[in-house]
Amino acid sequence: MPINSNEIQFIFGSSAQLDKMQELKRLSPFSDIVCDFLAELSALLMKHPRAKVFPDVITFGFFCRHGNISRLKSQYSGICENRLGRGVTFHIAPSNVPINFAYSLVAALLAGNSCIVRASSKQFEQIDIVCECISMALSDEKFLGITDYISVIKYPRSKEINDQLSAISNVRIVWGGDNTIAEVRNSPLPPRATEITFADRYSIAVIGAKAINDCDNMRQLANDFYNDTYLYDQNACSSPRLIYWLGDKEETTKAQEKFWGAVHEFISGKYMLEPVVAVNKYTAACRIAVELGAKIKPQKDNLISRIEIKNLTKDLPEYRCAGGSFIEFCSTDLDALKGIVNEKYQTLSYFGADKQQLADFVISSGLKGVDRIVPIGKTADFQLVWDGYNLIMEMSRAISF
Fold first, then answer.
1. Taking the CA of residue 245 as centre, how many other CA atoms within 13 Å lie in the half-sphere pointing to its CB?
2. pLDDT tens across 213-228, in order?
3. Whole-model pTM?
4. Fewer CB within 10 Å, N side or C side of the chain?
């Protein structure tokens, strides 16, 4: 059945392309043509005159480079030889993280699929830059074989369009959070189709106070923390909202002053706080203070909002707020996390803590949540295993013989 595309804006692709996407053959994971295309896309992005303004675009271009894709391919050596992509993948990207659509697209292509990607309906130049470079790369005749595998679209909320695109999908990938997932699930999938959903998540940063007090390069750490938080206005699920300090009271107080001072110096003049966000931050801080008995830490301005709590509670994710709003907790060990970490918790970033010890703690404690453990500065780095899903394996099928 032809797709009713009257409300669909095609950033790349066409209505005719959607209509024939089901007929495309499945590709093998990490097929040569896809890997070569991504290398070309990377080269175009890295030299695009407007891309340099957007660190997230450059990071995406760096992800697609030949060396990185080859490294990822080697990780799947011996386990993908008898696999093919599942077919048509229908992606719904989040509205507040502009470059997410591109990573979702790349993961599905690498798994051997064709892709219909609904990008954010907001106007982000990053989306235009990436799609412009996709178009430029696919203009090369050597990539004619995969031109029909990529469609990037925008459309307003529409159950009719969701119904039609879901009906031709072999895999549906929903990044929009709990409400979006509930809405999209009103559109049925074919019986053998699968679904990957990325729900609302909550993330933590564990910081060793001694390491901060001994640190000689606070500007680099502040830059890394900025990339995890303010770069995405703290809207990414991987952005830490709870800062878990490790150390005794005296060294932690000293470390906090040093850390937040460096962060404030780095973001001043770099991050523009919207008035509505400032109001939301103040309201959220007051609510936490009243309902959790927290202490609002005085600041020079509203660029950083710090709320100190004495006890961790299971409902912390309900108090999330964007734009540089942080809940702080201090302890000499990680045990307090055992009582609160549930499926909502995604990324645990760290500085001044041992990665293996953190992993051992998560696993030995049998925590219901925490799918990623990465250094501060790496929370937004995309990986083919995300939210506990191995995307290559989830979006391909095995042929047994």
1. 28
2. 999 999 999 999 999 9
3. 0.89
4. C
